[in-house]
Design a protein that fits this description.
alpha+beta; Alpha-Beta Plaits; 5 helices
């Protein structure tokens, strides 16, 4: 039996100003919405999503557009799986981008080690970059409604980045103790 309820938002807004249309699109994507086609998107039914979509409905009206919010379920398990796959594909795309940034972080640490740059200023910079990665992964996780395939790999990669920074920090502390 198909049991996952979704909220379906359909909207039509004037083409200009484009900035407002883009802002609306960004808000919906920021909520984790999956677009079925232009102006038609789905979100899991939660009280938070109901509230936020109603607020966006007001934004659409202020833009001179129209919006309709419906609760829906898939016709059968096959259609439900298609929708779940779309949600997971969107999250996996975000996880892939995150993994790429982890690789950049790891390369940056490797570069600093290769040139023996063990300064507190560099450590602070790398620590700030790690905090950005941590925050970014948390944002993706909040939108990962159905357990995308790359979630575990992303979590493990973040742990590896944290361990790498810990090792770099230890080398910074050792370098400064030797200089005293």
């Amino acid at each position: 039996m198909v049991t996952i309820p979704w909220l379906l938002l359909t909207y039509k807004v004037p083409p200009e100003p484009a900035a407002r249309r883009i802002a609306l699109w960004r808000k919906l994507k920021g909520m984790g919405a999956v677009y079925l086609q232009n102006g038609v998107c789905l979100l899991p039914k939660t009280e938070d999503h109901v509230r936020r979509l109603k607020m966006l409905e007001n934004d659409v009206a202020e833009m001179g557009g129209e919006a309709v919010i419906l609760e829906t379920v898939a016709l059968d398990r096959g259609h439900e799986e298609k929708v779940l796959a779309r949600f997971n594909a969107d999250r996996d795309e975000q996880y892939r981008e995150f993994l790429g940034r982890c690789a950049d972080f790891e390369a940056e640490i490797a570069k600093e080690i290769a040139v023996n740059k063990f300064t507190y200023a560099e450590l602070e910079e790398e620590d700030a970059d790690l905090r950005k990665l941590q925050g970014w992964l948390e944002k993706i996780r909040k939108l990962d409604f159905y357990g995308a395939g790359l979630a575990g790999e992303a979590a493990e990669r973040l742990k590896a980045c944290e361990a790498l920074l810990d090792g770099y920090a230890q080398r910074v502390f050792e370098a400064h103790d030797e200089n005293r």
